Amino acid sequence: MILPIIAYGAPVLRKVAKDIDKDYPQLNKLIADMWETLQASNGVGLAAPQINRDIRLFLVDSSIIFENVEEGDEDEFPDAPGIKKVFINAKITHLEGEPWPYNEGCLSIPKIREDIMRPETVTIEYLDENFQQHKDTFNGITARVIQHEYDHIEGKLFIDYLKPLKKKLLQRKLNDISRGNIQVDYKMQFSK
């Protein structure tokens, strides 16, 4: 089932999410619905707060980014072919590498994209959908998507990294999003 994406302005997007255990009600269905929602919205990541759940769960599908990489250009992308993973109760344990800019967007903040600086490598501990423990290191675009989704379970948004003047210049667009004065081609829920 495709779930509505919660728009900027909803309080759930600013809450630090809670850990869950394997007895969380209908977790497998929720994860399946989140994958379907992510695919329907053409995103590369989706966190539970974006579907109005304040739990530490997010999905990353960075493989989509690499689908159109030209043959021979793979060397430019150290993390190709990307990942498709579920992250539960994630905790970033280490960030390293030179911060680099990338034009980020967010399904909860449609039609706004900005260059955001993030470290090139992330080490993260998490549980998968079977509650198996993992500690992995990711780099490149995949590391960026993980950091972006991780921010969601920490109550942060990519616009929080912008300089105050830039954020002020975007305020009218942000207000329009929170009021529902925007058209998107996926299912959204506005707080109004």
CATH hierarchy: architecture: Alpha-Beta Complex
Oligomeric organization of the protein chains: single chain
Proportion of beta-strand residues? 25-35%
Mean pLDDT: 94
CATH class: Alpha Beta
CATH superfamily: Peptide deformylase
Number of strands: 9
Please estimate the helix content.
10-25%
Q: What's the total helix number?
A: 3
Keywords: Hydrolase, Iron, Metal-binding, Protein biosynthesis
Function: Removes the formyl group from the N-terminal Met of newly synthesized proteins. Requires at least a dipeptide for an efficient rate of reaction. N-terminal L-methionine is a prerequisite for activity but the enzyme has broad specificity at other positions.
Protein name: Peptide deformylase
Cofactor: Fe(2+)
Key traits:
192 residues; alpha+beta; Peptide Deformylase; five-stranded antiparallel β-sheet; two-stranded parallel ribbon; 29% strand
Question: Could you describe the 3D structure shown?
Answer:
With 192 residues, this protein is an alpha+beta fold. The chain has a single domain (5-189), classed as Peptide deformylase (Peptide Deformylase, Alpha-Beta Complex), CATH 3.90.45. It has three helices and nine strands, in the order βαβββββββααβ. A five-stranded antiparallel β-sheet has the order 2-3-4-7-8, sandwiched between helices. The longest helix is centred in the C-terminal third of the chain and has 16 residues, at 164-179. The protein is globular and about 40 Å long. The protein starts with a strand and ends with a strand. The model has no long low-confidence stretch (mean pLDDT 94).
